[in-house]
Amino acid sequence: MKDLPDTQAARQARLSLMAKAPEGRVAALLDAAQARPDFSWLRAPGIGSVMVRGRAGATGAAFNLGEMTVTRCALRLSDGAVGHAYIKGRRKACAEAAALVDALCEAGQEAAMQAAVLTPLATEMEAARNTRAAKAAATKVDFFTMVRGED
Question: Is position 91 within any domain?
Answer without folding.
Answer: yes
